[in-house]
Amino acid sequence: MDKELLMIDLLSGKKIITAVFLPIYRQRLRLSISLSLFSAGFFLGLNTLVYRYLMARVQTTSAAQKIVGLHYFALIFGGIIITLCLIQCVFVLMHLFFLKRNFQGWLARILQKFSGFSKVVEDEEHYFVKRKQKEVRLAKKDCLVLTERINGDKLMIGVEKLDLGVTRGFIFLRTTKIDFHKLPNVQTGKHKGAGKVAIFIGLFCLLLGSFLYLFTKTETKENTSTAVAHVSEEVKITASGLLKQQGATPNKVAQKENELYVANTHELFQTTDRGQHWQFVPLKAEWLRGGSYTLTSGEIPFGYWMDYTYQVGKDFSFYLYTTGSGDYLDLYLLFSSDNGVTWQKSQVGEKVRNLRYRKVQFFENGTGIAAISQTTAMSGSEQVCLFATQNHGQDWYPVGNTTINAPIQNISFIDASIGFISTREGIFYTQNGGRSYHEALVNVPEDYLLGGLDLFQSPNEVTQPNSTTLEAKFYLTKKDGHMYACLYRSYDGGQTWAFVRQLSEVTSAD
């Protein structure tokens, strides 16, 4: 049929066409909006609530990593569905606009893909229209005549009913030469039923896979329960997984009263009297450098350590270290309360993956916090995991996890409840021991910029001069390129920070 003649015939049937297609487009619009709202509520809302609930109660780092991975997968999956639904909404709104405001333009868009009418066959109750090698079944009661030609051919419009209550409109030509045949209706029913079964199986497999991923114990190819992978066969290891001294005790004067020394054998020794006596620390130096031993300024050279990963003292010494190899590491604390004569160890976390920043702080009454950061699949972001102790490091339990969308520079706690996470351009505070975080407001004068080496840099930890005031030295860069340590104070528990004064210029050596 000529397209111009077809256009004339269709224009004459505008009222019927509009009455058929308007409900179809409105139905599709409602379905797309409903699906997008459901996806937002399920994948973004409910997923976030479940994520926070599980993270507040997770017992192991490996389980926390699984929860985080599943959380991000749900966010991405939900985002894709919502985006597709919104795109569908835009297309439906465009069709609605043309149908109601520019019917001739709508017909022109429809006829752009028109390549002629397919042969139509029928039985007692249905028309069967061939479309893209598929046979579309239209109930005769859902079809109307648009126009009838002189030769008896009828231009008709029909509605196909799909799954989930979705309908689709078709315009076809019923000629006077009709072929009658009986189509196996059961086959079409099976096809529609197969679509519903496929959707059900897909959802079931998705939920089952998520459940298995979350609750199945992670298997690793490497042995992470022993320190043997880090030491040679000649190194002697005690039953507790610690080392026995092999090399000679150092005979040297220390520069500081309390100092850690790495011997040529990579054995560790500590002194609390400037080197008059040295005590053997039953760890290999490499064990203190598990994972990625870097700060945001770069990798730390061998022989240097991250702040607060160890402490040397007569009354109490501790070392945060890892054992194992491969992707997953076990995290331990070695500590001594008798100047290194005897040592104890406790497990802080198990199967820690992508370890980078780490730190331990102890407070009054034997409470303490161990904080670590782990790089994630999201570019630049890191997961922060906190562990707490109530008995000076003998036992640890996880207390909170969060993801920060920037590399961690420092984590500083005032006590077991109030703490801070700093990046190059932001500060996040917690007032409930790391169970939740909020971004703090930092007042930066006009001639300063964020992006310094550290916002909190040891020994410039957050301090509490009195019960109502917090103090910290923030490293800020002036617009001339020079960096300065600046005194800041907070009077609301770290929610907002006010500039007090510039203290001194900071160089890279500081």
Describe the protein's architecture and organization:
By secondary structure, this protein is an alpha+beta fold. Among the domains are: 1-112; 282-505, Tachylectin-2, Chain A (5 Propeller). Helices cover 26% and strands 33% of the residues. The protein is built from 5 helices and 30 strands. Strands 25, 26, 27, 28, 29 and 30 form a 6-stranded mixed beta sheet that branches. A 4-stranded mixed beta sheet has the order 3-2-1-7, with no helix packed on it. Strand 11 (294-295) and strand 12 (298-299) form a beta hairpin. Helix 1 (3-12) runs antiparallel to helix 4 (103-111), helix 2 (14-55) packs antiparallel against helix 3 (61-101) and helix 3 crosses helix 4. The N and C termini lie far apart (84 Å). The relative contact order is 0.07. Mean pLDDT is 80; it is low at 182-191 and 217-234.
Q: Which features does this protein show?
A:
510 residues, alpha+beta, 5 helices, transmembrane, membrane, Glycosyl hydrolase, WD40/YVTN_repeat-like_dom_sf
Quickly give the CATH architecture of the domain at 282-505. Answer: 5 Propeller
Low-confidence stretches: 182-191, 217-234
**CATH fold node name of the domain at 282-505:** Tachylectin-2, Chain A
Helix content: 25-40%
- Ends: how far apart? 84 Å
Inertia-based shape: elongated
State which percent range the strand residues make up.
Answer: 25-35%
| Estimated radius of gyration | 35 Å
Number of helical stretches of at least 4 residues: 5
